Amino acid sequence: MATYKEIRGVNIQSLESDPTTVEGEVWYNASTSLLKVYAAAGSWASGTNMNVKRGSGGGAGTATASLVIGGIAPPATVTEVESYDGSTWTEIADINTARGIIASGGTSTAAMIAGGGDPTTGKAETFDGSSWTETTDLSTAGKLSGVGSTTSLIAFAKGPPPSATNESWNGTSWTEVADMNAVRYYASGVGATGTAALAVGGQEFDPPTYVANVEQWDGTSWTALNAMNTGRSSLGTSGTTTAALAFAGGSPFNTKGALTESFDGTSWTEVGDLATKRHAVTHNCQTQSATTAYCTGGYNPPTSPTSWHNITEEWAFAAAVETVSFD
Amino acid sequence: MANDKGFFNYWVVANSGKGFITHTDRRKFWISGYPANVWVCDDIPESRDWGARNSAATKTKSQAQTLVTNDVNTAKGTWDDDDVDGETAAEKIERLGPKPTDITLP
């Protein structure tokens, strides 16, 4: 076996205390008899709980000003909207039509939603920072996913039954555009515009089959990318088309709902798990970042009305001193 | 991470929100939440500190399993009793999600 010196050209330093750190540095702490490394890694920690228990709300905004819009809490759907600044949830103006599993996007002061259920609707609404206003309906009602802004939004993965159809919003009207390659619904979206997005995961209908497929939308057509390691539906996502996170979701949710995967633009890698397994979390790019994200709401795992929760976990990617352990 | 070594602590405590589990906690020990506010952690000093910090009630594995099983059974009963005339099995799953299934704690 090659030694550390043969690989790196230097020996591991033996130090009496942890040094000022540089990412990737390795050293032996002689006073504690521990091998240490300064490594960057992501992890989930508890965040502030939302005010309203729910699942499958739509996400929008950024890491410091994100929205959770509507959602489901069977037997009802909800109209409540909350904004999160990283420490406090604040209830703001309700949407006009209660629904979950929606296309959503924009910022905390200029957002848009479309579609959703139950019952399924094609209604669309825009938010101007103070109130929600109905605008032009989708051509076809349904639960769906989607991302973008008030002037450019792509709505996809519509169901039930699951479909490959999509509609694009240009700020004024909806246009049916090229189908996805794979039929699905209960997917989640990544992206900040309607011309550069990812459709992540989802499921087929009967029997429920959880899919790992990921497709990229370039404003004209969908291209299949490398799939996630684990198929899942009703998941959460965050980030961009070249740096994204996918987390939670069913597959089946009892055992897989804590999994998190990171996308580098080419492939998906499993990273740190959520502390609470869950299904039907807020979806659609709740922040536009793969290094700062939130997972909110959902259930774990019972589906009784009392089991929907308001738990939030926050993803952060940071470097820290780690102890190297050997099994 | 040492979640496969077979030595765990079992706690019951409600998630209190921010600060309940920190990024530092997650870097130091494995922890996973289950129904009935049951939490399972690596049995190391840092996780015992976490339990004390959150005033968590310690349980045996058997006690914790019973709490989880009872919660899941309640959810199963709720799911079974929630029928709509004329609804197919697929439509029920679409409306409620899949029927809850048993959970076995590590």
Query: What count of domains describes the coordinates of chain B?
Result: 2
* Overall mean pLDDT of chain B: 88
Give the biggest beta sheet of chain B.
4 strands, antiparallel
Numbering strands along the chain, what is their spatial order in the largest sheet of chain B? Answer: 2-3-1-4
Mean pLDDT of chain A: 89
How far apart, in Å, are the first and last alpha carbons of chain A? 18 Å
What's the structural blueprint in terms of helices and strands?
The complex is a heterodimer of chains A (327) and B (106).
Chain A: H1 4-8, E1 13-15, E2 26-29, E3 34-46, E4 58-62, E5 65-73, E6 76-84, E7 89-92, E8 103-106, E9 111-114, E10 124-127, E11 132-135, E12 143-148, E13 153-159, E14 166-169, E15 174-177, E16 188-193, E17 196-204, E18 209-217, E19 222-225, E20 236-239, E21 244-247, H2 253-256, E22 260-263, E23 268-271, E24 292-296, E25 312-323
Parallel strand pairs in A: 1-2
Antiparallel strand pairs in A: 2-3, 3-25, 4-5, 5-6, 6-7, 8-9, 9-10, 10-11, 12-13, 13-14, 14-15, 16-17, 17-18, 18-19, 20-21, 21-22, 22-23, 24-25
Chain B: E1 8-12, H1 23-28, E2 31-34, E3 38-42, H2 45-53, E4 57-59, H3 61-81, H4 89-96
Antiparallel strand pairs in B: 1-3, 1-4, 2-3
